[in-house]
Amino acid sequence: MRIKLDLEDYGIYEGISETIVTTNRGWSMNAAPMGIIRRSDKLFVRLFKGSTTYDNVLSEKVLVANTTWDAITFVNSTFSDLDDSDFESLNINGRTIVPLKDAQCWVAFECINTKLTSDALVSELIPLGTHVNKCLIRAPNRGFFAVIEACIHATRYQLTGENKYLKLIKVYGDIVDKCGGKNEKEAMKLLYGYL
Fold first, then answer.
1. Is residue 85 part of a domain?
2. Same domain, yes or no: 14 and 88
3. Which of 110, 95, 101, 91 is nearest to 31 (CA)?
4. Residues 160, 66: one domain?
5. Domain identity same for 66 and 159
6. Is 182 a domain residue?
7. Residue 65 sits in which domain range?
8. What dihedral angle (degrees, nearest 10) is formed by the CA atoms of 103, 15, 60, 25?
């Protein structure tokens, strides 16, 4: 059953909204930072071949976009597996989904009209269900967004080994030192530890 909703109520705006996407296949749960692409009222996700998220979406055709302001969760889900205790297991229309327990909110999506390329898949997203855990009113923090950018460059560094990404990570680390709070600073320390 498809539902209609105001996507902005769940933190998904025009452009690319950074979320933690959770998926599962059987008892195996996975979380990874992913951008949900919104063009007008159409939603898409692009997943790269070789990732657990790619394999799970290809198999189960469902994902959950979790909205969170926890920079540590972004770093940990980029470079390691979250604990099973970080997830909850729910049933929506006969499908098992695994949202993050501590997300501010989440939207479960069915992945349809999937197109495969040699290195990725692109799926259109149709909302299946939602939940709001916490109503969080928070002004943007440059440190939080710098952690997200640093995570992106860190994954590119791990893939390529190119030093230009280390330089960019340092630039974003300096922004975190200047503008971030305790959570963002701890997240950057974790990120440096994964390099």
1. yes
2. yes
3. 101
4. no
5. no
6. yes
7. 7-132
8. -40
CA distance 195 to 183: 19
Between the alpha carbon of residue 17 and those of residues 8, 33, 38, 159, the distances in Å are 10, 10, 8, 23
Count of structural domains, the chain: 2
* H/E stretch holding 27: none
- Its pTM stands at 0.90
Residue 92: count of CB within 10 angstroms of its CB: 17
CATH label of the domain that carries residue 179: 1.20.58.290
Q: Provide the pLDDT for residue 125.
A: 97
Identity at 127, one-letter amino acid code? P
CA distance 152 to 149: 5
Q: 35-72, pLDDT tens digit by residue?
A: 999 998 899 999 999 899 999 999 999 999 999 999 99
Sole residue written with tokens 């205790």: 85
Single out the residue of 76, 19, 48, 81 nearest to residue 194, CA to CA. Answer: 76
Higher pLDDT, 155 or 140: 155
Domain co-membership, 78 together with 151: no
Structural contact between residues 106 and 130, judged by C-beta atoms closer than 8 angstroms: yes
Mean pLDDT of 142-169: 95
In a domain, 2, yes or no: no
Domain for residue 46, yes or no?
yes
Contact 150, 191 (CB under 8 A): yes
